[in-house]
Amino acid sequence: MSERTPIAPPRRASLAPAAPTHLNADILARARQLISLYPEPRSALIPLCHLAQEQDGWLTPEAMVDVAGLLGVTPSEVLGTASFYDMLHTEPVGRHVVAVCTNIACLFGGAAELLEHAEGSLGIGAGGTTADGAITLEEAECLADCDRAPCVQVNHRYVGAQTPESFDQLIADLRSGARDGDIPPHGTLIRVRRTTGIEAEPAAVAEERRVAAEARAAREATATTDGGGA
Amino acid sequence: MAITDPPKIVTARMGHADSHTLERYLATGGYDGLRVALAKTPEAVAAEVDAASLLGRGGAGFPAGRKWSMLRKNPVTYLVVNGDESEPATFKDHLLVERDPHQLIEGVVIAAYALQVTRVFIFLRGEFALGLERVQAALNDAYAHGAVGRDIFGSGFSVDVVVHPGAGAYICGEETALLESLEGKRGFPRIKPPFFPAAIGLYGDPTVVNNVETMSNLPWIMINGGAAFAALGAGRSTGTRLFALAGHVNNPGVFELEMVKTTFNDLINAPVLGGGIPHGRGLKAFIPGGVSAPWFGPDQIDLPLGQDEVAEAGSMLGSGSVVVMDDRTCAVRAAWRITKFFSRESCGQCTPCREGSGWLERIMERIERGEGREEDLDLLLDACDNISPGVAWPPQQTTICVLGPSIPSSISSAITMFRDEFLVHIKEGGCPYE
Fold it and tell me: Minimal CA–CA distance to A49: which of A15, A25, A75?
């Protein structure tokens, strides 16, 4: 990995969320649609981080500031959540993230040897990115495709069991663009848009939350009179 | 024991290349179960699922009907579907979400109706990119077909279903960690009590969390009745179940088998199932229910695939994943890799799990490299004992969730069953299998 990117954005004078400045109009429109699907905006945090990665290929500090503003949380809360998850990259990655599973079933299928080959042929260790920015290599935990071991995913698309030879061909195809049709660039997770469904109406959600809060208060009151405990 | 020929309850469409489309789904009885359900009262639907004695298919094996009955007195609840399949060598939900998303959606709407829930979240692990696309596409079609959304099939019942992508964390398969993640936070499990989802779940409200496979059984149960489901299997393990077979077998894959009637021997060796171990090798050991489960040796291969039967023998059927090790497998290396997994995936909240998994992984690694010491075996078991006192099964718990007590299983199994192998690594300074 190249030099570290600073994570914390400059501190603003006001804590009021700023208008988005980094995410493009298409991403913003989809982000607002996603937020409308949840009773609490913060539930859209991870889906929005995926969207931000679709724009930039990774989760940039600027994007985290925008996501925070859209959700009414602080940028550090976005980073605090994002840094927990393997798929959210807070440092730049290659156009193709190639994940080789080495967990138990894949280990028995030759995954350790495949990963060693991959490191040698790409000239990087697991976690590294090639100098041309094309490939990031990852050692993955189980990807739930264990009957096709050793399992490899490129940008979270399954490419089937790989041998050292087929792996080199796969990398050549990724570099030449031959797989662009079935494997989108890293960050693009869900290409199917939600085209229909009940758009959560703010008034309906507010009413739903009010009823829930009342019920919760009633339960807590009962629990208190009962002497507490669940 | 024998391989029975039960109805295909959740894999009926898998032979069709277009099994994920609405056209194929409707041509094969799709959404008929939902129509049956909507013609009944919600209570009657729940009673049918109770009659089926459907055990949750996620790993813990809690009766789905009982989970629901704890909820029905509360006014607003959420239904959350756990599709964060990440237990190593478990890949059955992968099949269900990619190949039959409408079946999942139909099951979800049936459950939502029984629970009178108006909002459902299907949480799928983020690495299921194709699965996420397939379920979203199926949802779009199901809304257009009138099977989801407002006034479903003219019944007056409405429900909104949202597909939610995870972002890569094994711990989010634990239901309270999943809810934290769904609230936009780090996947930290909640302490129970008081945070049982049925009492204090998503946003603090009562929530049912059910597994993908559990939901996928519901359409069949609605059409054929709970009694027909309960007639399959034996004892508490009713119906069929998906078993994901991996490791050293000729024909790894996902098989739908009748509970209890089939044995591990059938699953691993029958020509129509696992097809035996490659290269004519013998069986060394197998893991019966995900890497959290203690291992079994060849002497336990005739055990039936039933929840209670496996529990009584000292392990668990867990997530329905069976990993086979042939006689050329290094037990130290296998246990080390499993320990490395837990060390990587520990969320870090509880000291015994966070620190213990790291210690165990480093000790296991040095033994596998040939740099171990004889006292390491006692050290390993002592560290295991700090995570789960007694290192017994079922395990004692010192941590917020069950990831901690899952860590010692593979190490204690490997040491108990293959102590000599550890000693050879230590005395000869290397792995005898390399």
Answer: A75
Interface contact flag, A145 B187, Cβ < 8 Å: no
Tell me if chain B has a CB within 8 Å of the CB of A157: yes
* pLDDT values of chain A reduced to their tens digit, one per residue, 230 residues: 445 665 665 555 555 667 899 999 999 999 999 999 999 999 999 999 999 999 999 999 999 999 999 999 999 999 999 999 999 999 999 999 999 999 999 999 999 999 999 999 999 999 999 999 999 999 999 999 999 999 999 999 999 999 999 999 999 999 999 999 999 999 999 999 998 776 556 677 778 778 878 888 887 787 655 443 33
Please tell me whether residues B258 and B359 are part of one structural domain: no
| Closest chain B residue to A140, measured at CA | B341
Residue range of the domain that includes B285: 233-326
Same domain flag for B60 and B207: yes
Q: How far apart are CA A44 and CA A81, in angstroms?
A: 12
HSE-up of B73 (CA within 13 Å, CB side)? 8
B57 with B206, same domain: the answer is yes
Tell me if A42 and B184 make a contact (CB, 8 A cut-off). Answer: yes
CB contact under 8 A, B247 and A104: yes
Q: Is B351 part of a structural domain of the chain?
A: yes
Count of domains for chain B: 3
Nearest chain B Cα distance for residue A45, angstroms:
5
**Residues B346 and B302 reside in one and the same domain:** no
Q: How far does B334 lie from chain A, in Å, by closest CA?
A: 7
Residues 6+ apart with CB under 8 A from B255: B242, B243, B245, B267, B273
Whether B378 and B266 share a structural domain: no
Residues B321 and B338 in one domain: no
CATH number at residue B310: 3.10.20.600
CATH classification of the domain holding B371: 1.20.1440.230
The interface predicted TM-score of the complex, written ipTM, equals 0.96
Residue B198, both tokens? 């049925």
Run means of pLDDT, 10 residues per run, chain B, 434 residues:
87 97 98 98 94 89 83 74 96 98 98 94 98 98 96 96 97 98 98 93 94 98 97 94 98 97 97 97 97 97 96 95 98 98 98 98 97 97 97 96 97 98 96 87
CA distance A153 to A158: 4
C-beta neighbour count of A177 within 10 angstroms:
8
In a domain, B8, yes or no: no
Inter-chain touch A38–B162, beta carbons under 8 Å: yes
Take residue A90 and report the two structure tokens written for it: 């807070």
Mutation for testing the A interface, residue in B14, B72, B76, B163 having most A CBs under 10 Å: B76
The Cα–Cα gap between B111 and A158 comes to 31
Give B242-254 pLDDT, tens digit per residue. 999 999 999 999 9
The verdict on A127 touching B (C-beta cutoff 8 Å) is no
Q: Are B271 and B415 part of one and the same domain? A: no
| Inter-chain residue contact B205 with A80, CB threshold 8 Å | no
B230, B249, B275 — which closes off a domain? B230
Q: Domain of B171: which CATH number?
A: 3.40.50.11540
